[in-house]
Amino acid sequence: MSPLRLGPIAGRPAATSRRSGLGRARALWLGLSAALVGALFLLSPFLLKKGVAKEQVRLPAAALQAIREIFPKVAILEATMQDDDGVTLFAVEMKVGEKYVEVLASPDGVVVEVSIEISSADVPEAALAAIRKVAEGAQITEFDIVGDHAEVRDGKFARLLAARTAYWAEFEKGGMGGEVTVAPDGTIVETATEIEAKDVPEAALAAIRKAAEGARITEIDREETHAEPKGGTFAKLDNVRTAYWAEFVKGELTGEITVAPDGTVVETSDELEAKDVPEAALAAIRKAAEGAQITELGRDETRAELEGGKFVELPKAEVFYWAEFQKDELAAEVSVAPGGAVEEVLRWKCITEPAGEDSKKSAGPRPVKGKRP
Fold first, then answer.
1. Read out DSSP for 167-218?
2. CA torsion sign, 105 to 109 to 112 to 114?
3. Smallest Cα–Cα separation from 74: which of 354, 326, 346, 323?
4. 207, 193 Cβ separation under 8 angstroms
5. CA distance 155 to 153
6. Which of 93, 86, 87, 84 is nearest to 11 (CA)?
7. Cα separations (Å) of 35 from 41, 47, 70, 184?
8. Residue 144: pLDDT above 70?
9. Rounded to two decimals, what is the model's pTM?
10. Taking the chain, what is the end-to-end CA distance rounded to the nearest angstrom?
11. How confident is the model at residue 246 (pLDDT cuts 50, 70, 90)?
12. pLDDT at 84
């Protein structure tokens, strides 16, 4: 399970297919900038009509309750399960007037992040200048303000004392997409830019092609980390950290890989059929499912970690197999080691809500940083 990729809104139309690095008038929003408070006032959910139900959205009861405390009457358009540093969360998209809003919440009801679509006029001057510099003349198609309310610590979400605010923008030039996240003072936090194979360092491209094993490579991105969260703000790194991410498709199954510029494989993730899961791991998954329908299987592998700002290969790759399954109102996921040892099983009661009328938008999901949207 990998960190979320850039891009806070999960169910929105976009030119790209998967990303994800990134994640109301109540205590959750205390400490946000004046611009965000103003945006929240203008987007008050009490002023909106509920969308017409066309399909059903299933969410853990605690997550739904936490979201409803902020948005009690806004129709949910879409909900997707995602992953942040090995911790499961749900991306819930809503539409407030003509603006999109997304809340990231954990199954046990911790609100992790709230993103609101805004206009360029709502972006501080320093942040807007930084965004335009990264876009380099490309058409900026969207701006969001992002409030982080919790972060992963020791495998769990811990609430921040005050929300950390950033601005996210999406841009496009010549059919190639890009994203950037900046702090209010203009500090560039992260960028992700879609590139062609010829623009990938030779060693990194060779590693990507080896992992794809003849599958069709559908996208390659250059990802740069310029700053990291520090308290309520962001601190610049001494050196920009660069990695290359690629997605490939073989039949109906999708795979992903992240590599360092020197070709070091950082992590991989592959959707699998049952026949490709080791017997012991599959037996453990089926036992955990207890007769529930297994809806998805996959394999994740971590081969390198950051040390001193560089990716260093692990002595031994960390591998596990995961599965998602559901039965009636219960949903769950499990991760197991290749030998069948169960690492984690999560179960939660799902509450069904009617989805809003815009839940089937035409261009596919908004990019989200995560292996399993």
1. EEEEEEETTEEEEEEE-TTS-EEEEEEEE-GGGS-HHHHHHHHHHHTTPEEE
2. positive
3. 354
4. no
5. 5
6. 93
7. 10, 20, 18, 10
8. yes
9. 0.78
10. 11
11. very high
12. 67
Stated length of the chain: 373
Of the candidates 153, 159, 150, 168, the one whose C-alpha atom is nearest the C-alpha of residue 20 is 168
- The mean pLDDT of 251-258, rounded to a whole number, is 95
DSSP 232: T
C-alpha span between 201 and 349 (Å, rounded): 46
Residue 369 clears pLDDT 90, i.e. is over it: no
What does the alpha-carbon distance between residue 3 and residue 88 come to, in Å, rounded to a whole number?
10
* Maximal CA-CA distance, the chain: 57
The burial of 309, by beta-carbon neighbours within 10 Å (0-12 exposed, 13-18 middle, 19 or more buried), is given as exposed
Contact yes or no for 68/52 (Cβ under 8 A): no
Cα 119 to chain centroid, rounded: 22
Higher pLDDT, 49 or 274: 274
- Mean pLDDT computed over 121-131: 97
Neighbours of 213 (CB within 10 A): 9
312 token code pair: 């260093």
In the chain, domain spans: 196-267, 272-357
Mean residue pLDDT of the chain comes to: 80
Read off the pLDDT band of 85 (50, 70, 90).
low
CA distance 140 to 152: 30
